[in-house]
Design a protein that fits this description.
Blueprint lengths: L1 E8 L2 E8 L5 E6 L6 H12 L1 H19 L1 H21 L2 H4 L10 H14 L1 E6 L10 E5 L6 H8 L6 E6 L8 H7 L3 E3 L4 H18 L2 E4 L17 H9 L3 E6 L5 E2 L4 E2 L2 E7 L13 H27 L4
Parallel strand pairs: 4-12, 5-8, 5-9, 6-7, 6-8
Antiparallel strand pairs: 1-2, 2-3, 9-12, 10-11
Helix pairs in contact: 2-3, 3-5, 5-6, 8-9
Length: 318
């Protein structure tokens, strides 16, 4: 720590600098006429506290940009979402190691995901809990809008027992997140190997029948946030028919707070609606097209209805 004593005499400035770590020195500086004592003290202080000043300026810049630029806020919030989601998924690894592959492990990162929602300013409302399949496994179908759907799973996990997801096997090698996913029961599938994928789906059917697992799947196959759901892929329905288990449709209203084209990511509200289960008992592969159509129609109707309600109640969007 330096103590500076300034003594001025005409245009000369005598600086007595006390440095307890080294020794005392006296600096005699000839300054231009327009430079005052205050100017020189300011320059010395800036040099002394340049880290603190730089940090303060950087923080102020981030705050100003975050509040004034929707594009900056869009990328900042996605960065926050990614970092916090990664932390919430992996911080509980030591606890999950006690009971690997237990679905209850998923409740820990799900709690973390709900805290991430709070940080991002997203609120969720869940309807239709009375429709949840009881005493049986099922295939849970969820419309897929964004990577933020991870937060939807965080809301569903505590409500539906024995939930897990099917994911591409590449996720497993993204450690430590991949290890955490495996520990909470994620089923990894090799999409490039049809024979291996079929074996995995057969094991999934066994888990549904014997362990009453609830397998969460996104039947659209890719992210889409428009007013119309995409066509559904067949995989989830093959699993349901093979296991002779019901399908549990879950519909998430449109994310009006998120617009990738305009780079906007604002605080917002969405509704998660659990629809009555659709039975598959007695169905065969021949019934697949009709089952897909019935499921998509039910989900599209609720998606349109719930999105309109959210839009009217929470957003001034024409």
């Amino acid at each position: 720590m330096q103590y500076i004593i300034v003594i001025s005499f005409e245009c000369y400035y005598y600086y007595y600098i006390r440095n307890s770590e080294t020794f005392d020195v006296i600096l005699i500086i000839k300054a231009p006429d327009y430079v005052t004592t205050l100017d020189l003290i300011t320059m010395l202080l800036i040099n002394e506290y340049k880290f603190e000043i730089t940090s303060t300026v950087a923080i102020m810049f981030i705050i100003i940009m975050y509040t004034s630029s929707h594009a900056f806020r869009y990328f900042a919030k996605y960065t926050i979402f990614t970092v916090l989601s990664y932390i919430s998924a992996t911080v509980f690894l030591p606890l999950m190691l006690w009971k690997p592959r237990d679905y209850k492990n998923g409740l820990l990162p799900a709690w973390g995901g709900r805290q991430v929602s709070k940080v991002l300013g997203i609120t969720w409302e869940m309807k239709g809990k009375e429709n949840i399949v009881q005493n049986s496994g099922c295939v849970v179908l969820i419309n897929h809008q964004s990577c933020l759907d991870l937060l939807v799973l965080s809301e569903i996990y505590p409500v539906m027992e024995k939930c897990t997801v099917i994911s591409k096997k590449e996720i497993f090698y993204f450690w430590p997140f991949g290890l955490a996913s495996w520990l909470w029961g994620t089923i990894f599938i090799d999409r490039l190997n049809a024979e291996s994928a079929q074996r995995t789906l057969n094991k999934t059917g066994d888990a549904i029948r014997h362990k009453q697992a609830k397998i969460c799947m996104f039947p659209e196959g890719t992210r889409h946030g428009g007013p119309e759901l995409l066509n559904f892929k067949k995989g989830a329905f093959h699993v349901a028919i093979s296991a002779q288990c019901p399908i549990q449709p879950v519909v998430v209203s449109q994310y009006f707070f998120l617009d990738h084209g305009k780079r906007t990511f604002d605080p917002g509200h969405a509704v998660i609606t659990i629809l009555p289960p659709i039975p598959t008992e007695g169905m065969t592969k021949e019934d697949l097209p009709g089952l897909i159509e019935k499921s998509r129609t039910a989900m599209q109707e609720m998606y349109t209805k719930s999105s309109a309600e959210v839009k009217t109640k929470h957003y001034s969007v024409s």
